[in-house]
Every structure is written in structure tokens, then in C-alpha cells.
Amino acid sequence: MQTTYKVNQVTLLEEKSENTLKVLKQDGRTQAFNLNKILKIYVESARLNNIQLTEDELRKIRNKIEEHIITKASPCIETCEIEHILKKVMNESGNPELVSTYEEEKNNKLNERKNRRDVNKMIQSLLTKDKSIVNENANKDSNVFNTQRDLTAGIVGKAVGLKLLPEHVANAHEKGDIHYHDLDYTPYSPMSNCCLIDFKEMFEKGFQIGNAEVESPQSIQTAAAQTAQIIANVASSQYGGCSFDRIDEVLAPYAKLNYKKHQETAGKWIEDKVKRQEYAIEKTKKDIYDAMQSLEYEINTLYTSQGQTPFTSVGFGLGTNWLEKEIQKSILEVRLKGLGKEKRTAIFPKLIFTLKRGINLNPEDPNYEIKELALACSAKRMYPDILSYDKIVELTGSFKAPMGCRSFLQGWKDEQGQEINSGRMNLGVVTLNLPRIALEADGNQEKLWELLEERLDTLHDALIFKAERVMDATPENAPILYMHGAFGKRLTKEQKVSELFLDRRATASLGYIGLYEVATVFYGGNWEENKEAKALTLDIIRKLKKTADSWSAETNLHVSVYSTPSESLTDRFCKLDKEKFGSIKDITDKGYYTNSFHYDVRKNPTPFEKIEFEKAYAPYTSGGFIHYCEYPKLQTNLKALEAVWDFAYDKVGYLGTNTPIDHCYKCGFEGDFKPTEHGFKCPECGNTDPETCDVVKRTCGYLGNPQKRPMVDGRHKEISSRLKHMKGSDLNGN
To answer: For the modification Glycine radical, which residues carry it (predicted)?
Structure first.
């Protein structure tokens, strides 16, 4: 049997043998021997010396390597011995200069690794404003002092963290086989990731922040103020996003306290019962609006200890009494109005509106008018995103908003059989570079599965290490989380934090990126209608799900498959793979990888095509997912947006709206700013001044202002590409 593979565009025929030779790595692990890896090192050394190798020459080199290695009697060979054989073959082949080139490249990589783990070197990179450091997070303004302090701490955390990680995990992260997320915080500190804060428990029982013991709020204004304080403290005690699920239902009892007070006041001064009722209702409505407006401003003016606005999401839409409905309306009306005198689009909190048949989905439903308001808000401000109630229950086992961006908890009940969502959390994410596996497989699907299994072994060690590190924390490390109710159950100082994680109460996430590029390796860049290609991508996701389920049984955590939010990772993995494999059409030549299971944005699919294509993936990635649709300006055609929402309801659980909402305060233009190499500019007057233009783009799940917060190169390119093709997605008439 013969199989074809390519080495730097030279095609060879390799006789496939039943070789069981193993390689003993320096970190003690064993891997299956791969002749291609050695041959490609030889070819790369030749390329750097401007030596062109013919196919016949490559055959001879391969045969010499095989002669030295494959015929070994021992079932295992050490990497140092492989290196010795490679140098010997370089000399025997008449190219001794390749040895020094190989040694130089090897030393360069070792020095790069050493520098990444050298605190002083990394701080120097920060001082010289290395873009990969200062622009890594679009929610962090690297110009302000407290962010600079956090970035400095992050540099130290990364350098120390790489040394704390198991060596093979650190190596895999640095090479780009996997990505150990949030290395600036963990494993240096035993912090957890994102969560659903248990606001209801904290409001009802009170809590403590610093030296202040906070009692249960007696008005919606106080509840809103406490909400902001809780968010700030939770965000400073973890590194991921935090969500307030069912905010309308949780805050309604405190709005009712306002209503009762206004009734009492009206009873003293107004004789007419009807007018007393009207007075109390109107005053309560005003209180609710003011409280929601205050919360919006407080969140957007907060800075956490990480030097950023807390990444906050609020879920709402299911409440049906008049107070709950008024809270929903106020949230949307406040967002529609905008921030400040220029009415800018608020970046946080991320609004997530729930659609449910019988409540607000259809015109005959009692809350349909709020859906109409949500449509108007989404068209003008890009939020809210929407959740489809029935589909979320089907996919995750219960209904809840995501934690932060897109991380979903799975259905879980306590010992009393009560369903619990709020007060639960995620312990971290490690993401797999799927395109690299496909590229290394070199057209051989059997090899793809072998490499996937191998990389999953490494990812397993990384993820379990990450989760176990969080369990090293003590309740005193983060009192707001463990002792004062944010994580639900309140622990004493002596209890172990693992009590809140085990029995699958917490999740740990197996992330992935680049399914589009994987299929492109095997079937070309236009594979979306190819059933065989799509079947391959689904088989990969099923494999990840099966693996995650087995890890769940092993660890007593809920290991979930997570469609990674890859703000910097879209760029990082692609950049590393371009260095390794060169520029490959529709894969590394774009400058970014396509996130998770998303349809290639360059093909400009309609929202209906995109939803129909992507719906098959979420059932296997229920630990984290979101679907986006691209639209033209929609403010005058809300029925078009509603058509997509309704179409999506029984197909996908979580849907985001991407539409041009940029605004120029010099000329008044509203719409789509033009992406350039240096940022975005108004197409009418050429304005690029961040102070007089409001540029809002979605950056992997949440909104950002790339004019004020420069994004990493790959993410900027992806947005630019998306905007370039978005204009054709005209829904008028659909």
C-alpha cells in the first residue's frame, strides 16, 4: 500500500509499513515514530541554505534515515539518538553545512523558550510595547496605569507559570500544539475562570466585601448598586467573565419593595384609589429605569484589579409579571439610549435576551412587545444576543445564560434533587490546534486520528493540571466567591474549595479551533456542501465529546467540549503554523484561523445558510458555543432580523447579531467604518479620531472598540474580512 505526502511542495511515495517504533521524548513521554518530521527538518535546513532537493534526492535521504532508524532492534529510540542520526545523514548526503544550520535553528528555538520563561526578558518586551502583549485583550487599555500594572504582573505570572506546568504541557503550549488559556493568571495563582454569580442568595442572606457587612437590599436602586459591587469583587477574584442570570426575576422583589413604599406615600396624600395606584406604578417604573441606567454606567466605569472593565453578561426575558417586564424594558431602553452626551454604544454588560414560545416569541404571546424592543436594540447596539429557551434545555440539560461569553454549564442537581445553575463555575480551558494536526497528517486521515489521539493525551494532562491547581485555593483566597455566597454554598475557612467543584458541579473545558481549516486540508477551501467533508468535521467533534465524557468519569468534574472564544488565538495558532508549514491557500495565508465550527465568513453566507450549516455541531460542543449572523444596516428593517431569530429558534441555542453600528460625530455618518491597516475610518469624512468616532465590533463573543483598544493582528484581519463581505448579506425581502 502506498500513500502520498508532500514536503515543501515535493511529492514523495512512502511505502507504508507496520512500524511500531516509539520515540522516547526528553520529558519522559513516548510518541509514535514519524519519519516525515525528520525529513521535513532536513528539507527546512536545505531551504535555509538555498539548496533545491529533487524528488530522487529526497528518496535517497529518506532511505538513509530509514536504514539507521527503522531497522533498529529496539522498540524505542531516544530523541537525542534521532538527532545524531539526522546530522550523520546530512554529512553522508554531501551537505555538511546543513548541520550548522540545524544547530543554529535549534539553539534559536531554545533561546526563545528560555526568554519566554525569563521574567526580565518578558518585562523588557512589555516596556517596548510588544503588540502580542499589550494588544492581547481587546478589553484592556494598555495606556492606563492599572492595566500596565496588571500586564506586568501577567508577564511574571506567565514566566513562572510555564515553569510550574508539566514540561511536556509547557512545550506543547509554546510550540502551538495546544493553548493553555490565561497563563498570566494560572497556574501561578489557583484562580477559577468564569461563573454564574448567585445574586439571589447573596441579596437574601447578605454578604461581606472588605470590612463592610452588607444587608439585604430594601429597594431596586440598592440592589443595583450591590450588583455592581459584587461584580467588581468577583471579577477581581477570578479571571473569566461573570453573569447575572435571570436578572429581571431576581431584582423584581426589590422593585416590589419600591412599589409598596410608593403605595404608602400615595395613601397619605392622594384620596383617589385609581390615582394612588397610578402614582405608585409610575414612580416604581421610574425607579426601575434609574436603577438599570445606574447599573449600566457603574459597570462601564468600573475597573477591576486586572485593569479592565469586568466582563459581565446579564440574562433576562422570562419574567412575566409587570415588575419583571418593566425591568426587561428598562434594560433595553437604557442600552438603546446610549452612554453619555454622545450616546455611545455601551460595551458591557453583554445583554442576553431569552426567547420562549408562549412568552415572547410570537405576536400573540404576552411579552411580544419586549421582543420587538429587543429587535430594535440589537439592530442599533448589536446587543442583545438571544437564547432559544427550548434549544438550550435540549443542548445543555437545563436553562441558563452562559458564563461570560459562551461557556455553558450543564444541567445539575444537588443532593436534594434541586436544579442548581447560579453559583457554579468553570475551572479553565485548554484549546487544541486542530489545523496543525490536519497539516501534519499531510492528507492521510488515518494519521490525523493518530495525531489527534496523541495531542488529546497532552491536553488531558494540561486540563487536569489546570483544574487541580484551582483546588489548591483556600476559601480565604477569595472570600466573595467561597465564603460570602457568589458560588452559592458558603464555606468556612477550614473547608476545601473542591466541595464546590466535584460531583460535576463545576466544568473544565476542552477547547478547539479551526474546523474549517481542517476540512480544507483534505477537501479544499470550498467544502461546505461536500457531505464527506462535513462528516469528517463532525466525526472530530464527536471524538472530542467522547473523550471529554471519559475524562468526566475519571475526574468527577464535568469536562465539556468548548467552542473556544479565540480573540488572540485565531492569530497565534495561524502565525505559528505559517512559520512551520509556510503560506497555504485558505489555511495559513489568511492570517487567522476560523473560530470553532463557524462557516467561512469570506463566502458571505446568508444567515439562514449559516444557521442551517452550523446547527449540527452544537450538540457535541454544549460546554460552549455561539452562532453569529452578519447583516447590513437593519434599523429600518427589523422584520428581517426577526425572521432570522424565528428561523433560528428550533435550530440553534445562542445567536449573536453582527451589524454595522459605527458612528462619526464629526459628519454624523452611521453605518460601517472602513477597515484599514491602521484602524477604522469614516467613509464619509475620513475621520479616525477615537474621541470623535464610535467604532464597535464584535471580538469573539463580546463587543470592543478597536479604535481605542487595538486588537491582535489576526483578529483585526478576521473582522476586516468579515466587514468586506458583509455588505452582500442583504436580508431585504426575506
So the answer is: 701
Examine the residue annotation and report whether 405 is marked as an active-site residue of this protein. Answer: yes
Task: Establish whether 423 is a catalytic residue.
Answer: no
Q: Which residue in the list 242, 377, 382, 403 is annotated as catalytic?
A: 403
Please check whether residue 514 is in contact with residue 573, taking contact to mean a CB–CB distance below 8 angstroms. yes
Contacts for 450 with CB less than 8 Å, ≥ 6 apart: 32
Between CA 539 and CA 605 the distance in angstroms is 23
CA distances from 729 to 102, 632, 725 (A): 50, 6, 8
- The SS3 of residue 7 is strand
Is 137 a catalytic site residue?
no
What residues of the chain score a pLDDT lower than 50?
1-18, 709-734
**Catalytic option among 367, 388, 422, 426:** 426
Spatial neighbors of 365 by CB under 8 A, at least 6 apart, are 357, 358, 359, 371
- Among residues 279, 389, 562, 628, the one annotated as catalytic is 562
Decide: 286 and 220 in contact? Cβ < 8 Å: no
Burial of 579 (0-12, 13-18, 19+ CB in 10 A): exposed
> Catalytic residue among 193, 360, 444, 566, which?
193
Exactly one of 701, 704, 711, 729 is catalytic; name it: 701
Residues 6+ apart with CB under 8 A from 689: 666
Q: For residue 591, is it left (φ>0), alpha (ψ between -120 and 50) or beta?
A: left
Location of C-alpha cell 532492534: 73
3-state secondary structure of 566: coil
Question: CA dihedral defined by 12, 17, 19, 23, rounded to 10 degrees?
Answer: 0
Catalytic residue among 45, 189, 330, 407: 407
pLDDT single digits (tens) 611-627: 999 999 999 999 999 99
Contact present, 228 and 348 (Cβ < 8 Å): no
Does the annotation mark 292 as catalytic?
A: no
Q: Is 701 designated active site?
A: yes
| Single-letter amino acid, residue 727 | K
Q: Is 562 a catalytic residue?
A: yes
Q: Is 194 in a helix, a strand, or coil?
A: coil
Q: Kindly give, in sequence order, each residue whose CB lies less than 8 Å from that of residue 427, ignoring residues fewer than 6 positions away.
A: 192, 193, 466, 467, 470, 501, 506, 507, 508, 557
What count of other Cβ atoms lies within 10 Å of the Cβ of residue 99?
16
Torsion angles phi and psi, residue 259, rounded to 5: -60, -45
**What is the pLDDT, as a whole number, of residue 438?**
97
Q: Is 732 a catalytic residue?
A: no
pLDDT at 492: 97
Single out the residue of 493, 516, 504 nearest to residue 411, CA to CA.
Answer: 504
Question: What contacts 24+ positions apart, CB below 8 Å, involve 293-299?
Answer: 293/330, 293/334, 293/337, 294/221, 294/224, 294/225, 295/224, 295/227, 295/228, 296/334, 296/335, 296/339, 296/346, 296/349, 297/339, 298/224, 298/225, 298/228, 299/228, 299/231, 299/348, 299/349
Catalytic hit among 122, 194, 425, 471 = 194
Q: Is 700 in the active site?
A: no
Of 183, 68, 195, 191, whose CA–CA distance to 132 is shortest? 183
Rounded to whole angstroms, how far apart are CA atoms 506 and 556? Answer: 9
Helices (H) and strands (E) in the chain, counts: 24, 25
Q: What are phi and psi of 466, to 5 degrees?
A: -60, -45
- Tell me the pLDDT tens digit for each residue of 342-395: 899 998 999 999 999 999 999 999 999 999 999 999 999 999 999 999 999 999
**Spatial separation of the C-alpha atoms in residues 408 and 622, rounded to whole Å:** 7
Rounded-to-integer distance, Cα 722 and Cα 683, Å: 17
Query: Which residues are registered as beta bridge partners of 192?
Result: none
Length of the chain: 734
Question: Which of helix, strand or coil describes residue 24?
Answer: strand
Q: Which of 174, 567, 614, 630 is catalytic?
A: 567
Determine the pLDDT at residue 732.
Answer: 28
- Is residue 426 flagged as an active site residue? yes
